[in-house]
Structure formats: C-alpha cells, structure tokens
Amino acid sequence: MMYTEKVVEHFRHPHNMGKLANYSAVGRVGNILCGDVMWLYIRVEKDAQGRDIIADVSWETFGCTAAIATSSMVSDLAKGKTLEEAIGISNRDVADELGGLPPIKMHCSGLAADALNEAIYEYLTKEGRPIPAALQARHDHIQKDMATLEERYKVFLDRDATKGKPDEAPSCS
Amino acid sequence: MIPMPDRVYLDNSATTAVAPEVLAAMRPYFDARYGNASSLHSFGREARQAVDESRAAMADALAARPEEIVFTSGATEADNLAILGSALARSGGGHILTSKIEHDAILRAVEWLKPMGFDVTLLDVDGTGRVAPGDVASAFRKDTFLVSIMAGNNEIGTREPIDEIGRLCHDRGVLFHTDAVQAVGKEMLSLENVDMLSASAHKLHGPKGVGFLYVRRGTRLAPLLHGGGHERGLRSGTENVPGIVGFAAALALAQAERVDVTSRMRRLRERLMTEVLKIPATRLNGHRAESLPHITNFSFAGIEGESLVMKLDEAGIAASTGSACSSPNLEPSHVLVAIGVPLSMAHGSLRISTGRDTTDADIDRLLEALPRVVAELRAMSPFKVGE
Questions:
Q1: Which of A71, A162, A163, A173 to mutate to test the interface with B (most CBs of B within 10 A)?
Q2: Buried-most residue among A52, B171, B242, B280 (CB within 10 A)?
Q3: What's the CATH fold of domain B20-253?
Q4: Tens digits of per-residue pLDDT, B244-273?
C-alpha cells in the first residue's frame, strides 16, 4: 500500500495539531474500536464584513497515517473559511488535496470532513442559530452511523468466531 | 529505491533476508543446472539429484523419512493441503478443532469447508495466547478427525503445547497438524505426535515461494493440485529446484547455528521486554517465557499501530503491527482480540521480530526511537495517556 508524498508530508509534519485554546466548538467522530477517532476544534470569529469565519482550527486524532494526514488537511482547508464555505468541504475535497488515498483508507477522509461538520453543528446549536438542512442531514447520518457501528461491533465482539464469515465483520468505512 | 544502508530490519517474522550461504547454494540451479527434475537427460538428472538430496537432508534434520516431505509453494499451500487435503480425503463431513489465533491460512481454509458439511470448533486461548490441552480434550467429538494448532504464534510469539496436544490426538486416533512456520529452525520440534507440519523457507533466511508439508506415512490426503503427479501425487507441478535447494540450505544453516542465534534472540527479547515496558501505558502481548525467541509484541495505549510503524520507518526501523488498519474491514487483530487485549489497545500494537543478523546495536536504535515516536503520536491523540 502506497501513500502519496503529500499524505506522508502531512503525517510527518502535521498542521494545526493539538487542542485549541478558547475553542468555540468541537466535533468528535470515529470509534476507537475501528482504530480511528478524530476530535476537531474550531474557534469562530466575525471577520471585517461581519461574517462568521473559522478563525482557528485544530485537531487531536488517534489513527493511522491517513487519519492523521486527513486531519491535518481538513484543518488547512477549513482555516479562514466562512462557516458556509466550511460546510461545503467534502471528503472528496480532503482526499483530492492529498493527491488521493488508498481505497481502503478513503473512510479517513470521510472522518475528517465529518469532524468538521460536527464541530460546525455543535457551534450553531450552542449559539441557538438555525441549522442548514444539509448540515442537519449530514449530522443525523454521522450520528446514526456511529450508533450503528457501536451496535454492530458489540455483535462482532460477542459472536462466536466460528459463526459468521470473516467478511461479515463490520466495516468501519 | 535509494539504498539506505543504515536501516534496521526488525520484521523477520514477515520475511527474512536470504542468507549468503543459501543464495550460493541456489545459484547454480538457475542457469547452470536448470533442468526439469522429471526429465530423463543429464540436465534432468542433476535437478532430480538436487531435489532428492535436499529432501533427504531436510528429512534427516527433522527425523522424518524423505517421502514424508511434500514440497509446496509455501506455508499457505502447506496449511491448505493439510486442512483441505485431509477433509477431502474423507467421505462425508466431520469435525475439525483449531484455535482462534491460527494464521488466516488455517482459519480461512476451515471456514471454506463449512458449507461442505464440516463443523469447526475454534478453541479459546488464555491471556498469553496458550491453548489448554484440556480444552482440546473436552472439545473432541465422535466425528473429530483433525486438530490443527500452531507451534508458535506469528503475531505474539506464544509457543503452544503441541507435544501434549498431539499425544491427546493420537490417543484418540485423530490427525494432528501444526503450522510450524515461525518455529522451524528455532525450536526443537519432535514429530513423534505430529501427523502433519507446515513450514516455509523465507521465514528462516531461505527464499520465498517454497515450503513443505510434512505428512506422516499412512496419512490419507487428497491433493489440491492435479497434474503430472509430482510429490508422490500430492502436489503436481514442476519442482522449484532452486527454491528446494535453498530451503535445504536454510534449514541446515538454522540447525547449525540454532543454539547461538536463538540464545542471542532470547537475550534481545529480554532487553526489549525490560526496556519497552518502561514506556508508560504499555503492555506485552504474549508470554514472557513460553515464547518463540524472535517475536515480541507490545501495545501502546492511545495510539494506532500503523502510525507507529510509519514513524519508526522514518527513523529507519522496519517493524510491523498486528493492527488491522491495513485490512479492508479494519477490525483489530484476531489474535489480540482472542487474548483479551482491551480494544483501546488492540489497535496500538507493534511486533518486533529479530533474525540471525540482528544485533544489540539494532535494538539500541529501536529503543532510542520508540519512546520518542510513541510520545509524538500520543501528543496527537485525543486519548491522553496518564492524565
């Protein structure tokens, strides 16, 4: 399995790593049972035009090379963006900016974009602001996935390993 | 590739460097004595002689008969031949006993047999990865025809009590197979209670692409590969002559230096256990004493194994992880789950495996880099260890 130079570069020298002081909101996604967990912190401020922008962003990630590289990349992509622009950042954007990811690692880019989504969702909720429909839909989807995953993993861990084929094991993607 | 002479290779349970003596023994069989061992002419006779002599020497080293050695393409094929071959030689189904920590070559093979009317019991192991012989005894059924328990585990190194389990099988007239891929050349293996044993050359400084299945005389096996009837009909296909010669040379070398090499490996393993466990929130996966000499496996809380391997690679150190981030479904290693490693730690495993060339200086390099890279990755992690 080969990572692009850009992935390796972000892994070796990650940007915006750590916990942000005075963060406005945090998005927590992933599951330790799957081997990757991402916490993304954002600080929202008004810019000169009075728009909400992500003035600063940081992350803490438990995961593989791709998980760390996508954390770094999504933080670069989000920094300085308006909330509206940041909501538009997709997992495809994250993967493309890294020059692609190995197929089995594509879920890592999804995780990074999800973490950003969840941080913005938490921010707007805390502020009592209206939630755009797309953000709400994605939030519901992420939460449902995480709940399903936990449930499925329970089954996987409790199951008699003689039952069920190896390829019936839950997918974390 | 840019040559990196100062790299340290600590992934010898994945594969090993071909030893110079082994390469030298193999060389003539590529371009000087390249005959097909089945040919009648002098080229063929040279090749046949090389195969025969290699087989005889290996049989001698294992206290087996030459005709009990069936050369294969590697251990995966040997494992499949043992499992599928003994199942398919029966009429009707039956029951197979194996453990939860076997190599996938066993687990997937027994899985494949299930729809064909075979039942499989996967035995639990204890927290160190040991199969209890008593568990084997109590899992026997009337229709149990095969037990397969590895000699030593490839991820965590734990040695299994195969003599005792083999004896239980023989008392009941049940076939006993052992996957001895990691143990051959390192452990004294007795075939007294073993009907079938799988081995692979590239794990002991031999070439890739050659293995064997020891098959005790009188064991009924159905071949998986059909064709020219090579290997007494058990494995058709032109013999991999250089590979077989290389395997024999590698086994001879391993036997000759076994005491020296494995005592050094044990000493290095002791050092690793002492030093690595000083890193906070770290655990040893496996057994301190009942272990193959060359494999040591640790878990580090709060970090993920692939990242750790990648960081070590940057530092010029090659090791591996049992973590399954590289597998499509990302589930943690079945071995670590079976020995009860907490799931929070099962993804953060590191396997260090030494070879005949590994030195104290290599371990020094690892011990210098490891605490640093663990700390770096923990600094990135949301799970703050020790806070």
A1: A162
A2: B242
A3: Aspartate Aminotransferase; domain 2 (3.40.640)
A4: 999 999 999 999 999 999 999 999 999 999
User: The CATH number of the domain where A54 resides is what?
Assistant: 3.90.1010.10
Hey, what amino acid is at B35? G
Does residue A147 lie within any of the structural domains? Answer: yes
- Stretch B108-127: mean pLDDT, rounded? 97
Cross-chain residue pair B111–A11, CB shorter than 8 Å: no
Give A147 to chain B, closest Cα distance, Å: 17
pLDDT digits (tens, 9 = 90+) for B204-246: 999 999 999 999 999 999 999 999 999 999 999 999 999 999 9
Examine the residue annotation and report whether A64 is marked as an active-site residue of this protein: no
**pLDDT tens figures, B21-69:** 999 999 999 999 999 999 999 999 999 999 999 999 999 999 999 999 9
**Which among A35, A39, A170 is the nearest to B304, CB-wise?**
A35
Nearest by CB to A166, from B111, B347, B379: name it: B111
CATH of domain B8-16+258-380: 3.90.1150.10
Domain regions of chain B by residue span: 8-16+258-380, 20-253
Is A172 inside any structural domain? Answer: no
Tally the domains of chain A: 1
In a domain, residue A21? The reply is yes
- As a whole number of angstroms, the distance between CA B305 and CA A63 comes to 8
Contact between B54 and B248 under an 8 Å Cβ cutoff? The reply is: yes
Q: Which residues of A98-137 are buried (b: 16+ CB within 10 A; e: fewer)?
A: beebeebbbbbbbbbbbbbbbbbbbbbeeeeeeeeeebee
Q: Which residue has the tokens 């063929």?
A: B44
Tell whether A169 is covered by a domain: no
Which residues on chain A are in Cβ contact (under 8 Å) with B107?
A: 166
Q: What is the pLDDT of residue B330?
A: 64
Q: Are A41 and A23 in contact (CB under 8 A)?
A: yes
